[in-house]
Design goal:
globular; five-stranded parallel beta sheet; five-stranded antiparallel beta sheet; 33% helix; 23% strand; alpha/beta
């Protein structure tokens, strides 16, 4: 299984970075070792480009960078090569839910990042939306909102923590983005190891040749994975990469 890995896809929050949002030296060294062996290492994150570019630069640019859960894909020069916007009609429905339940919202647009503390100041139609989200601490309210969202087949609904809800257009997820990247690199998903911790990682973990859940991952993610590595605070990414590099092909 490990002998076929040619691309490693890494989630960031709860996976690659620690509680301070930093990449540990152990993880960084492991990534560099993988690259030296000719393995593509692709960040696959829910963050926007502006929120992950510094870490991408720190690790050394890779062939592609997947952001906003697959809503945007950039090449090694940070040129946008693929994007799937969230229709403003859907955003208006999401905003209505936000107002109805008085919950915290956050969003990614090509014009900037907006949330309850940094609200947008123009009409919804004025922005190019990529992703919309809620963070809802109350379990009952979150369930009500989630149940309503699940009725809409035009939405792709995941999370990056137990209390939040992430919304992309239907069909937009990290796995679908990786399929595109693999096509451009002339690889198959069987040659991918995907590592993550949350529901926005579960599709790529299921569809990759070797799916890895972090030790701190949500239980559904662990059940979907082929293997569970260490905690994100214990350099679990490095442990997963070292498993690949310990195969005969990479010794």
């Amino acid at each position: 299984m490990f002998m076929s890995i040619k691309l490693i896809a890494l989630d960031m929050d709860g996976t690659l970075v620690n509680h301070e949002g930093e990449v540990s030296p152990e993880n960084e060294r492991a990534i560099r070792r993988a690259k030296e062996k000719g393995i593509h290492v692709v960040l696959s994150t829910g963050r926007s480009l502006r929120k992950c570019r510094d870490i991408s630069d720190e690790l050394g640019r890779s062939s592609y960078l997947i952001t906003v859960n697959g809503g945007e894909i950039y090449d090694h020069e940070y040129q946008l090569v693929d994007t799937t916007p969230l229709d403003t009609k859907l955003v208006k429905l999401l905003w209505t839910l936000k107002e109805e339940h008085n919950v915290y919202f956050w969003s990614s647009t090509t014009q900037g990042l907006f949330n309850t503390h940094n609200p947008f100041d123009q009409e919804i139609d004025a922005y190019n939306w990529l992703k919309f989200g809620f963070d809802i601490q109350d379990d009952e309210v979150r369930k009500v909102v989630m149940d309503e969202l699940m009725k809409n087949k035009a939405l792709e609904i995941t999370n990056s923590s137990p209390t939040n809800i992430e919304i992309n257009p239907a069909g937009v997820n990290k796995a679908a983005a990786l399929v595109k990247v693999c096509k451009w690199l002339d690889l198959s998903m069987e040659e991918v190891m995907a590592v993550g911790d949350s529901m926005n990682d579960i599709a790529m973990i299921r569809e990759s040749g070797f799916g890895v859940a972090m030790g701190n991952a949500q239980e559904k993610v662990k059940k979907a994975a082929d293997w569970v590595t260490g905690l994100h605070t214990d350099h679990g990414v490095a442990q997963a990469i070292d498993r690949v590099l310990s195969s005969e092909e990479y010794k």
